[in-house]
Design goal:
The protein has a single domain, classed as 3-Layer(aba) Sandwich (Uracil-DNA Glycosylase, subunit E), CATH 3.40.470.10. Helix 2 runs antiparallel to helix 5. The protein is 36% helix and 12% strand. A six-stranded mixed sheet has the order 3-5-4-6-8-7, sandwiched between helices. The protein contains nine helices and eight strands. By secondary structure, the protein is of the alpha/beta class.
Length: 256
């Protein structure tokens, strides 16, 4: 992606005061510097760190693309918790079923419940801008949530509701086999990493998920960034960290 387009996408995110520092190698990812906030610096990017994730039993599905249809039908028919009774439809997930980047959010909201697709409101528009700034169009990644049904009044999903949906998400991860998981928001990060540590302390380093040690990067939820735009510079640092893990793999997919 050319630099002018990237800067346009950064402006879509609301990050407007960026300049690129020259690097010594064409292979290095340019590191952003916030001119308007002198006290904000990029953290050193550490080697991947493994987090203790208790073993979980996943849905027993063969890792074959034909199983997507079976999984969709299972999600649609699911009544393992009470959420399905209070929503209009399930929100399975959307995107490239062989994506290198898997984005996992928290739970569907009112807009997502109406349309049956994750991240379609104002937060979704910001997420699209964040992905474009990374070099991905929305359709080139896969986007899912911790739970597939909208909780009443957009409340946080309860622990037992997240557990009821866990096997479906694990099956999606097994089918996609992503190179990286981008965990978006507190509910996503704490469920995936089995922790109660705050997002602000989980971001800034590379975690691992599951038995295959998929790299996982935590960032703030776009809805939080809309409420707290001063945190967008930190979110961009997280996206740069994610890019450093992904490297050159299949970026700029789906571009014109």
């Amino acid at each position: 992606m050319d630099e002018l387009r990237r800067q346009n996408y950064l402006r879509m995110m609301g990050v407007t005061q960026w300049r690129l520092r020259q690097t010594g190698s064409d292979d290095e990812i340019p590191q952003p510097v916030v001119e308007a906030e002198a006290d904000v610096t990029l953290a050193e990017q550490p080697a991947p760190v493994g987090d203790a994730v208790p073993p979980t039993e996943s849905v027993n599905l063969a890792e074959d693309r034909s199983d997507w249809l079976t999984l969709r039908q299972q999600v649609k028919a699911c009544r393992q918790c009470g959420l399905r009774a209070g929503c209009s439809q399930t929100v399975f997930g959307v995107g490239d079923e062989q994506a290198d980047l898997l984005v996992i959010g928290e739970a569907p909201g009112a807009d997502e419940d109406r349309q049956g697709e994750p991240f379609v409101g104002r937060a979704g528009q910001l997420l699209n801008g964040m992905l474009l700034a990374m070099g991905f169009k929305r359709e080139a990644v896969f986007i899912a949530n911790i739970v597939k049904c909208r909780p009443p009044d957009n409340r946080d999903p309860a622990a037992e509701e997240a557990m009821a949906c866990q096997d479906y998400l694990l099956a999606q991860i097994a089918l996609i086999q992503p190179k990286l998981i981008l965990s978006v928001g507190r509910i996503s990060a704490q469920n995936l990493l089995q922790t109660d540590i705050a997002v602000g302390k989980l971001r800034g380093r590379v975690h691992t998920f599951g038995e295959t040690n998929i790299p996982l990067v935590v960032t703030y939820h776009p809805a939080y960034l809309l409420r707290s735009p001063e945190q967008k510079s930190k979110a961009w640092q997280d996206l740069q960290l994610a890019l450093s893990v992904l490297g050159p793999v299949r970026r700029d997919q789906g571009r014109d």
